[in-house]
Write a structure and sequence with these properties.
Layout: H1 3-69, H2 77-90, E1 96-100, E2 105-108, E3 113-115, H3 119-126, E4 131-132, E5 136-137, E6 145-154, E7 160-168, H4 170-180, E8 186-191, E9 194-199, H5 205-208, H6 213-222, E10 225-228, E11 235-240, E12 246-250, H7 255-296, H8 307-316, E13 325-333, H9 336-343, H10 345-362, E14 367-370, E15 375-381, H11 385-398, E16 401-406, E17 409-413, E18 415-423, H12 428-443, E19 448-451, H13 454-470, E20 479-488, E21 493-505, E22 509-511, H14 513-520, H15 525-546, E23 553-557, H16 560-564, H17 568-579, E24 586-591, H18 599-611, E25 615-621, E26 638-641, H19 644-650, H20 656-669, E27 673-677, H21 682-691, E28 695-697, H22 707-710
Parallel strand pairs: 18-19, 21-23, 23-24, 24-25, 25-26, 26-27, 27-28
Antiparallel strand pairs: 1-2, 1-7, 2-3, 4-6, 5-6, 6-7, 8-9, 8-12, 10-11, 11-12, 13-15, 13-18, 14-15, 16-17, 20-21, 20-28, 21-22
Length: 720
């Protein structure tokens, strides 16, 4: 998954998570508000029903009291009118008071003489009931809708001689309740499927909301229940009073419904804001990542495109040149690592900057990349092989320049160039051929150009086959060990062996270690192989020791990369534990190149090896890295001197004898046992005796031997 896709996925997940949480918060708020709306609507409904029932009960009691007094004055109509008028002044909650005769004549408190309209309630009252009538218009003011509370009037013989009527206006009741309560909605009173009274509006059903009309019949039939009109808290709660009124509580006026709407829009705006922030964040992070990618695709020191950019250009075929062919040149600075080891990394930076500048100026329209520490790639359009060769040779000359190494000291910097002519269908495998051509130029001594041709192609194929077979050699158990004897001059016997790895490939046959060991050292394979060598040698030493052989050691070569690997000491401890070998049987050899590579950590590692009983040796001393003074820096017990010194002595090079004897004397002074490598003749042995050499190794004693032959040499005596 690319970083861009990963970024989209992460941001989308974050944005959707926030939107989900925001939406869930809205849903939770909405649910809570709807619950409160329903609770408040129920409370409103119950409050109104209870209040109407209380009001009706009190008014019916008031009317009955009036009915109890009327018999005493019934014969005097004026006195009845005066009584009713005075009572109305006290009972102002009645719209009007009146006495109704059995014939339906009404004597009102204002002196009016009227005729009964609601005869049903009159007849029921004349039959002994206290009745609340249906709604009708007040005769004195037809705009006012009232209902009559009618109570029978009985004389002393308990005979009903008429009825007392008190007219009530339910709207006044609602108004009184509103003065006492903050109504969270609207209330409607229904009688006979008609909205008679409502609050806060006094209008009929047309003002209520016509869509509710279809529910009125259902409401009056069910008497009690709930109707949810939408999902935003709008609902109708309904119930009936004891006097037969249907009361509907409508939550539409509840401010919490508006809160739900605001919550909804707030959720919409918040989600829109989250999306906007997510989009802006994506654009911002994309820009940062693009800038970071651009920086990653450029070499920090020279500013040139690096290997990542090269691979991207290859994959996207973004060269876009007009000509059909491209000449690609691999350019490696000669002796670069050696120079920085001698003069420091500042000189290395100076060489790299100067080379990159020269390459950029070499020819317009070219592409330049720095793909490795001292390796550049130069690509340019090219028509013919001849032009490719001319450009390659021109690069060698162009990049041959003088640099200042120390104060006034100057030297020429040269390069090895390998080139390949290809069409624009470029791919990595083809580029590897150019790298192989560059290696060929370096192998020939540098400061030259090599064009990849048929001959190199054959060699390259063999090299690739070698690498391919080598990658499985350890797994397929194709490696084996040989042992070269080490002779002690003073003891005149074989005192040990140097273990050396060999490879017998089923496909390629016996392969020289000079061919495959450098390949192993290019990657982690040398660590795995080194681990196998340690175990194999330790097991062999154990086998010889258990067979009764004494007084011998076996040297194990440890590569610099293996020594610096984080698992090295752990591998050593594991080897000792698993094989149960006595550490004194092993001597670890490292090349003198360790002196210039992380010397502090090397000292710590060697000291730990010495502490557990494994002695150490510096191998190939004198091949160019170390000095005599450096011998004191590292805790070695053995000094293996390169055969080049004895060769110089035999060639009678000036000072050769003094140098060799001096090295031997210094090693003795440091209590280091010297081992002279590459001794091939008896004359060399005799000469080394005179110099004070202690041990020798070479073909004069024996070539490297297989196990079955090496075991015969243990402790063998020689007198030369």
């Amino acid at each position: 998954m690319s970083k861009k896709i990963w970024l989209k996925f992460v941001l989308a997940t974050i944005v959707l998570t926030f939107i989900f949480l925001n939406t869930m918060d809205y849903q939770s708020t909405k649910k809570s508000l709807k619950t409160k709306i329903e609770e408040e609507t129920i409370n409103m409904l119950n409050s109104f029903i209870a209040e109407v029932d209380r009001f009706s009960s009190r008014r019916m009691g008031n009317v009955k009291l009036l009915a109890d007094y009327i018999p005493y004055i019934v014969d005097d109509e004026n006195e009845v009118i005066d009584f009713l008028r005075k009572q109305h002044e006290v009972m102002d909650y009645f719209s009007a008071l009146g006495f109704i005769t059995p014939e339906g004549k009404i004597v009102a408190d204002d002196g009016s003489i009227l005729v009964v309209k609601e005869k049903e309630s009159l007849h029921r009252a004349l039959n002994g009931e206290i009745v609340i009538s249906d709604v009708f218009s007040l005769a004195q003011n037809p705009d006012i809708k009232v209902s009559s509370i009618v109570s029978p009037v009985r004389n002393e013989n308990n005979k009903i001689i008429g009825v007392v009527s008190g007219l009530i206006n339910i709207q006044d009741v609602i108004q009184d309740m509103n003065d006492s309560f903050k109504l969270p909605g609207s209330v409607y009173f229904i009688k006979n499927q008609e909205v008679i009274y409502s609050y806060p509006t006094k209008n009929k059903i047309t003002e209520l909301s016509f869509s509710h009309a279809e529910y009125i019949h259902k409401i009056e039939e069910e008497r009690y229940g709930t109707i949810h009109l939408n999902s935003s808290g709008h609902l109708l709660k309904y119930g009936q009073t004891e006097t037969g009124w249907t009361v509907i509580a409508d939550s539409l006026g509840n401010p919490k419904i508006q809160d739900i709407k605001w919550s909804f829009w707030r959720m919409i705006w918040m989600n829109a804001l989250i999306l906007l922030v997510g989009f802006l964040l994506y654009r911002f992070v994309s820009t940062i990542m693009r800038q970071a990618d651009d920086r990653l695709k450029k070499d920090f020191l020279t500013g040139l495109p690096n290997r990542l950019q090269l691979h991207e250009d290859i994959e996207s075929l973004s060269f876009g040149w007009e000509k059909d062919h491209i000449a690609v040149y691999f350019i490696r600075l000669d002796r670069f690592r050696e120079l920085i080891e001698q003069f420091g990394y500042q000189l290395g930076d100076q060489m790299l900057l100067r080379t990159s500048s020269l390459l950029e100026d070499y020819e317009k329209g070219s592409r330049v990349y720095r793909v490795d520490y001292e390796l550049f790639i130069f690509a340019i359009e090219c028509d013919t092989e001849r032009n490719a060769i001319e450009s390659g040779e021109g690069l060698v000359q162009w990049l041959d320049h003088e640099i200042v190494v120390e104060e006034d000291a100057k030297m020429n910097l040269t390069v090895s160039v390998g080139g390949i002519l290809i069409d624009q269908e470029i791919h990595r495998e083809v580029l590897e051929n150019g790298a192989f051509a560059c290696q060929e130029s370096s192998r020939k001594g540098g400061n030259q150009f090599t064009l990849y041709d048929e001959e190199l192609s054959i060699r390259n194929k063999k090299h690739r086959q070698l690498v391919r077979c080598l990658s499985t050699a350890l797994e397929r158990q194709e490696f084996y060990m040989v042992y070269q004897p080490i002779y002690s001059i003073s003891e005149q016997r074989i005192v040990g062996f140097e273990s050396l790895i060999r490879w017998n490939s089923p496909d390629l046959g016996e392969i020289s270690p000079f061919q495959f060991i450098p390949i192993l050292e290019t990657d982690e394979a040398i660590v795995d192989t080194g681990r196998w060598i340690m175990h194999t040698v330790a097991n062999q030493a154990n086998e010889w020791s258990q067979a009764g052989f004494k007084n011998f050691t076996i040297n194990v070569n440890v590569s610099v990369k293996q020594l610096h690997h984080e698992s090295f000491l752990h591998d050593v401890y594991s080897m000792l534990e698993e094989t149960r070998i006595h550490p004194s049987l092993l001597i670890f050899e490292v090349t003198e190149s360790v002196i210039v590579e992380k010397i502090d950590s090397v000292v710590q590692i060697l000291e730990k090896l010495n502490a557990i009983g494994i002695k150490t040796a510096i191998d190939d001393f004198g091949t160019g890295y170390s000095s005599l003074a450096s011998l004191t820096a590292l805790p070695f017990q053995y000094l293996k001197i390169d055969k080049a010194f004895i060769d110089d002595v035999e060639r009678r090079e000036a000072g050769a004898e003094a140098i060799l004897k001096g090295i031997i004397d210094i090693a003795k002074a440091l209590h280091q046992t010297t081992v002279m490598e590459g001794v091939e003749t008896e004359e060399q042995l005799k000469l080394l005796k005179t110099f004070g050499a202690e041990r020798i190794q070479g073909y004069f004693i024996s070539k490297p031997l297989r196990v079955e032959d090496a075991v015969k040499m243990i402790d063998k005596k020689y007198t030369w």
